[in-house]
Amino acid sequence: MTKTLNPIQIDWNARAQILAPDGRALIDGQRCNSLSGETFIKHSPVDGRSLGAVARGQAADIDLAVAAARKAFDRGDWSRRAPAERKQVLQRFANAILAAGEELALLETMDMGKPVRHALQVDVSATARCIQWYAEAVDKLYGEVAPTSDQALALITREPVGVVGVIVPWNYPMLMAAWKLGPALAAGNSVVLKPSEKSPYTAMRLAELALQVGLPPGVLNVVPGLGHEAGEALALHPDVDAIGFTGSTRVGRKMLEYSGHSNLKRVYNELGGKSAVLVFPDCGDIDPVAQAIASGMFYNAGQSCNAPSRVLVHRSVLEEFTAKLCRSAQGYAAGFPLEEKTAMGALVDDAQLRSVLRHIEIAQTEGAQLLLGGHTACDDRGGSYVAPTVFAGLTPSMTMAQEEIFGPVIGIMPFDTEEQAVALANGTPYGLQAGVWSRDIHRAHRVARALRAGTVHVNQYDEDDITVPFGGYKQSGNGRDKSLHAFDKYTELKTTWMRLEPSPTQRAE
To answer: Which of 270, 326, 378, 404 is catalytic?
Structure first.
C-alpha cells in the first residue's frame, strides 16, 4: 500500500460532470436491478444535481441476498479457506481501493457532500488501511487450551458466526462499511451490506472491487434501499446470524426489537453521541485548545457521532476561550466540496439541513446566545450548506445539550468545579467520547476515569488509529468497532472437549 493520494492537479468539476454511477444492487457476484424494478433518485447535496436512479431493494431482494450469502458460507470456499489465503485476497482488496481512490473519493463527495480532499486523503486511505489491517491480523489469532485435568483436552476456538447483516450510515459511508467488513470478512463470514439511501454508491463499488480481486461470489452482497424496507427486512431476516449497525439511537432500539421478533440474532449497535470536552484553567495555551475543538466539531460539517458538540469551560477562562473558539470556527466557512481550499462541505441533504436549522431555532428560543453562524450558506450553489455555528450560555436542560444535532453547531457551558464539570459531562443519555484539557496529569487521569465514555481524549481531540476500539457507553451502543476486539462481534467461541483417558467405568469393562 504505497500509493500516495493527492487531490492537487485534478479537475474535480470536470470529472463530476461526467460521473455516472451504477445504482444497481450487487447480489451473488452480479449487478442487478431490484426484483420489483423500483428505484429512487439520488440527488447530490453538493449542488442538487441528480446522480441517477438507485435500485430500491425490498424484502424480496434481501431474501435473495441472504440466500446467496448462506449458500456461499455453506459452500466453504471463503468460510473454510485458510486464514493466510483470506489474508491475501483482502490485501489485494485494500490495494484495489487505493488504486480506485480518485473514483471512490468523487463518489463519496457527490453522494454526501464532504470536501473531496478529505474523501481522498482521509476516507479512502483509512478504508484501505482498515481492510489491510484486518487482513494482516486474521492469521495471527490463536485459539486456547483450557487448564483442565490430565484426562481431558479442551480446545477453545473461534469460528465465523455465519451470515452477517451490515447496516451503515451516510456520514462516513466507506469507512463505516470497512470497520465492519474488515473483521467480518477476515473471520470468514458472508455479508449482506445495506448502505444508507442517502449515500449508497461507494458501498456497491467496494463490493465490485472485492469481486475483481478474488472474493468469491455471494460472500459480499450489497442491497441499496430505504431503511424501513431493506434495512428492516435485513434485521428481521431469520437466516441472518448477526447485525452490525451504525446509526441513530432511535433505529438502534428497533434493531434490538427486530432481533427479538425474529431469531434472537446478535445485534451490535454503534449509536449517537453528545460528546463533552472539559477545558480546565490549567490547560495551557488556549489557542491550540480552541483550534483542536473547532477541528473536531466542524470536520465533516459536524456530521460525526463523536463531534465535541458540548464544550464545558472553567469560568476563569470562559471569556478568552469563547473568543478564540469563534475565531477558529470562522476558518471552517462552508464551501464548495470540489474546491481544494474548502474546509467544510455540505450537509447530506435538505432534510438534514432543515433538522439542523430547527435545532438552531430551538436553542435560541430556549435562551442560548448565538455568537456565530446560525444560517444557511452557499445559497447560490443549490446544495445543502449551513455556516459553522457557536452558542454560548448552554444549560444542561436545553435541547441542544441533550440531543444529537449532527451538524456544525457547538455549545459552550461554564463550570466552576471539577466535580460539577464531570457531572455535566455525564449528564446525557450518551457516552461515546469525551475530552479533557489539563496540564495536571493527576487531574487529567482522575477526570478521564470519572467520565462515562468509550473514548476519552486528553489534551487533543479525535486522534485515532485502527488499533484502538471505537464504541460507547449507555445509549451510544454496545460492542466495539476497530481493533482486535471487533472480531468478538463476528465470531463464535467453540469449546471442543476431548477425553484422553478412558472413564473408570470403561476401564472396569
So the answer is: 270
